[in-house]
Target: BLUF domain-containing protein
Amino acid sequence: MANDVYRLVYYSRNRMTGTPDDLAASIATILNTSQANNGKVGVTGALMFNSGFFGQVLEGPQAAVESVFERIQQDDRHGEVSLLAFETAPTRSFEGWSMGFVGASVPDAARYGAIVQDSGFDPTRMSGNALFETLHHLALDDEKLAAA
Model:
């Protein structure tokens, strides 16, 4: 059906290098570009980054989600892009997020991302549902903080 919402969950290895400030600037660029482009095609989602990995959920019309994912696969900042799940979803979980960054601020992720990785965030060992649930939980926490 044309109105179906598709959810895609993937992780990739970070290929960006540089100082923490360089990484923060690169992630800010990714977010700004994603928010502008995704809003135009009806894709919502959330991104998590640490020094080793990106984890992301994309939601929206099938063709749009596939197109966004294709661009990600071609992006030199992502390596070993691994699809964990791609399926219809009953509803969007990131309705108001053309692309949200969850779990920390961009500068903190660049500076302290290794702590997250060292603490066990290893998307190579997560199912698509586990990564989705992690991002969704963090997004809800971020929304609560923003509302407070």
Summary: Confidence is low (pLDDT under 50) at residues 115-119. Helices lie at 20-41, 62-74, 106-118, 128-147. Residues 5-147 form a domain with the Alpha-Beta Plaits fold (CATH 3.30.70.100). The chain is about 45% helix and 25% strand.
